[in-house]
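Quarterly update, task 2.4: MGD-bound model.
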Amino acid sequence: MAGLAATYGSGAMTNSMDDIVDYAKAMLVIGSNTTEQHPVFGTKIRQAVLKRKVKLVVADPRRIELTEFAALHIRQRPGTDVPLLNGIMHIILKNGWEDKAFIADRTEGFEEFKATIEGYPPERASEMTGVPLDQLYQAAEILGTNKPMAVMWAMGITQHVTGVRNVMSLANLQMLLGNIGISGGGVNPLRGQNNVQGACDLGGLPNVYPGYQTVTVEAARQKFEAAWGVPLSNEVGMTVTEMIPAAGEGKIKALYILGEDPVMSDPDSAHIRHCLETCDFILLQEIFPSESSVYADMLLPGVSFAEKDGTFTNTERRIQRVNKAIDPPGEARDDWWITAQLATRTLAEGKRQVQGGTHAGWNYHHPSQIMDEIASLTPSYGGVTYARLERGDRLQWPVPTVDHPGTPILHVGRFARGLGRFMPIEHLPPAELPDEQYPMILSPGRVLYHWHGGELTRRARGLLAVYKEPLIEVNPQDAERLHLNGNRRVRVTSRRGSIEAEAWVTDRVPPGMVFANFHFPQASANELTIAALDPVAKIPEYKICAVKVEAAQE
Ligand SMILES: Nc1nc2c(c(=O)[nH]1)N[C@H]1C(S)=C(S)[C@@H](COP(=O)(O)OP(=O)(O)OC[C@H]3O[C@@H](n4cnc5c(=O)[nH]c(N)nc54)[C@H](O)[C@@H]3O)O[C@H]1N2
Ligand SMILES: Nc1nc2c(c(=O)[nH]1)N[C@H]1C(S)=C(S)[C@@H](COP(=O)(O)OP(=O)(O)OC[C@H]3O[C@@H](n4cnc5c(=O)[nH]c(N)nc54)[C@H](O)[C@@H]3O)O[C@H]1N2
Ligand SMILES: [Mo]
């Protein structure tokens, strides 16, 4: 399921949703439009504020719905999360609100980190972020004096060239306050796709085998070679954001794409179309014709979530059984079955024998056998079986053995790596900032009623009835300056492309910024976005590029 989208993830929630809503005294939601994009958790957060008087700080350039429940809404300029957090941590340290015992017992690198924080006094942080001074003090007090405090984030934090730095800053904050390994606290990336956590856990990343066992570690490679009976490479592979450009340069000759619609979801669509056109052979495994399927040389029909058995691992590391509810139409087959067939036939073609090992090649008859293999090779899933899931065990990994109850909170008493490491993080600007020619910022994202490229949701009449065409959020001040009165259609242009759509004039966005989605092919934000990548995670800087906004021609 959108397996390659694993690239867009970042770690795992340390705590559970119920634990956070039941025990946190304060929460920081930063770069997550929780009520629209994670509505179940969003609703629970709202209830925690209403019923338990949890103090909620929302840090988001947009006035999202959750801000109505917040004790404080911080509207930093996009791309300034590091100076924001450094400024807040500066105030926390000046007031002595840090957890000295936790820092001494459980962390390292504090002095160097502190020296960096010295460089972000509130006045400077305020200037860099556009956040008023008193709000920085207010935020520091709420976060620094209410314990436990939980941090939640999503793509507003990660989809930047500084995505990894932003996440590290949040880890710094939680170590500084001793909010790790305790109930109601933690660092909690809200994972996006239903099974992106599972895809990462099971090696849908270029550098690890299942269970985050590193491909460059000799012992890990030998273990999987022995189990699978085939030689394996010890080189780190490419991320999806590197593969498609490589196909455009002729370095990759063939692509096997499962449940991904790169034309809609990857940055700079014109470039993506060129890359797909250039690629010699594209095999696409889909459940619907998509914007990308016209570039496919061969289509294989997979099956949707409702038509298959299996498991999804959700955002809180919970492994959940998925039961087939209806029969798939026509020639559609289970995605795992198609992959197994391709693998078996490719291996036979190459005259390479799958020579036993501990597992019988690709000869699965049911996904429970795949889970048994996962358990035998993946320590964190070691105790997961279909029998346990079916009798209702609520399993959150690590589940090392069949009698282990699972792990609702990570890092209790000790970090996986021993001591937690403070990282000194400086601010770096986005790849493309506004200038005279392209004076505004485009910040793309999602709306409640649609899902990514919209292949699923644009087929649902009920959803189209509420949200039928793309809307571009424009601040009233900008609308006036652009003479949008009477003409509500706008044209938004970047160095890479141009889209035209209906404007929604609203102060949800600050002046100087427009928000567009990528749910509709007739006006997808990705025609405009820039393919600048975070150097470590290789996630694109979807959340910021420079654009020009005009009233569309009548
Ligand atoms: N209805 C619906 N739900 C979904 C999805 C969907 O397509 N539709 N997709 C799923 C997936 S795969 C994912 S990854 C998640 C994504 O979930 P979210 O990340 O919550 O959604 P986004 O709309 O991408 O962006 C989140 C917020 O980041 C803010 N933001 C923009 N720039 C910045 C910045 O520089 N700093 C900060 N702090 N915030 C910024 C935006 O204003 C926006 O409110 O949603 C999941 N849930
Ligand atoms: N501008 C901008 N672009 C973004 C983002 C952003 O915030 N801004 N967010 C990024 C993020 S976080 C993500 S996760 C990606 C998502 O991008 P994609 O993964 O490309 O989008 P989806 O629509 O979730 O899934 C793609 C296809 O999977 C098919 N599909 C659904 N279920 C199944 C199944 O069970 N089997 C098979 N074989 N196919 C199936 C659907 O028909 C759909 O066409 O978009 C990224 N792109
Ligand atoms: Mo995502």
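Highlight for this quarter: The first helix runs from residue 17 to 23.
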